[in-house]
Amino acid sequence: MRQAIELAKTGMLAGNGGPFGCVIVKDGKVVGQGSNLVLKTKDPTAHAEVVAIRDACKTLDHFQLEGCEVYTSCEPCPMCLGAIFWARPAKVFFACTKEDAAEAGFDDEFIYQEIEVKPENRRIPMVSLMREESLKAFELWKEKGDKDLY
Amino acid sequence: MRQAIELAKTGMLAGNGGPFGCVIVKDGKVVGQGSNLVLKTKDPTAHAEVVAIRDACKTLDHFQLEGCEVYTSCEPCPMCLGAIFWARPAKVFFACTKEDAAEAGFDDEFIYQEIEVKPENRRIPMVSLMREESLKAFELWKEKGDKDLY
């Protein structure tokens, strides 16, 4: 966790993004790390956890982080929480809370609230369209023989 | 949306990942696109929406998608929903619903449920650690003069 906090500080001071860092460990060894790179890479998905998950998956050459521990300097936002559930590490440690983050100007509480709102009523309206056509892609998937499940 | 569904089909048939595609449009022009690349890139964050957001941000050279419309072949999972809120497009259109996705074997309902659970009680336990040390990174951020807000 000390290393994750250090990444948060150095990344922010370098102007790469906000003060967030993340380190992923497997069997006592660091397999991935990252700091927030939203500003540097102009990528809104480049939160520390996402950057570290991608780094660890590259190291482990797998799309899942089985048996890994995630150390993140702050409680994950909904996007990073989703990314963590898809990556399936064994455990997550976080330092600051989302309330601390909000107090520092990083408020993801509105996203947690928006998840509860019906799609069409969200701040960014989300509207269904061409469902029947898209279902055909799912039909093709179900029929596909040689597929990997993830 | 027709193009997003086509990306879903071709990406899946190529073995790149699940049957999901996404196209991002600004002023009637495609500025970003993507299909699910989880299997191809071994990156659990490479959902169609995240891939397309990254692509559009590269095209527009900005970390926000102001005035853009997102066309995705399926209702976004919590990770992609978070990514969309951080990218701030104007509107989202989706074709299949998350219930359709669950029926095809892509069940993200458990993530929506886990968000409601207290961190320490989640399937992947999330535990706080070294909060005081990490708060110092936020203090540094607050003191930082030449920072971009995002």
Q: Would you summarize the structure shown here?
A:
The structure is a homodimer of 150-residue chains. In chain A, 44% of the residues lie in helices and 19% in strands.
Give an account of the 3D structure:
The structure is a homodimer of 150-residue chains. Chain A is an alpha+beta fold. Helices cover 44% and strands 19% of the residues of chain A. Chain A is built from seven helices and five strands, in the order αββααβαβααβα. Chain A has a four-stranded mixed sheet with strand order 2-1-3-4. In chain A, helix 4 links the parallel strand 3 and strand 4. The longest helix of chain A is centred in the middle third of the chain and has 13 residues. Chain A is globular, with a radius of gyration of 18 Å. Chain A starts with a helix and ends in a 7-residue tail after the last helix. The model of chain A has no long low-confidence stretch (mean pLDDT 95). Strand 5 of chain A pairs parallel with strand 4 of chain B.
Strand content of chain A: 15-25%
C-alpha Rg of chain A, in Å?
Answer: 18 Å
Shape of chain A: globular
Strand runs of chain A, count? 5
Q: What structural class results from the helix and strand content of chain A?
A: alpha+beta
Low-confidence stretches of chain A: none
* Main sheet record of chain A: 4 strands, mixed
Sequence of secondary-structure elements of chain A: HEEHHEHEHHEH
Q: Biggest interface, which chains? A: A-B, 89 and 89 residues
Mean model confidence by pLDDT of chain A: 95
Which oligomerization state do the chains in this entry correspond to? homodimer
Strands of the widest sheet of chain A, in order across it, are 2-1-3-4
What is the straight-line distance between the termini of chain A? Answer: 29 Å
Measured as a percent range, the helix fraction of chain A is 40-55%
Task: Output the number of helix runs of chain A.
Answer: 7
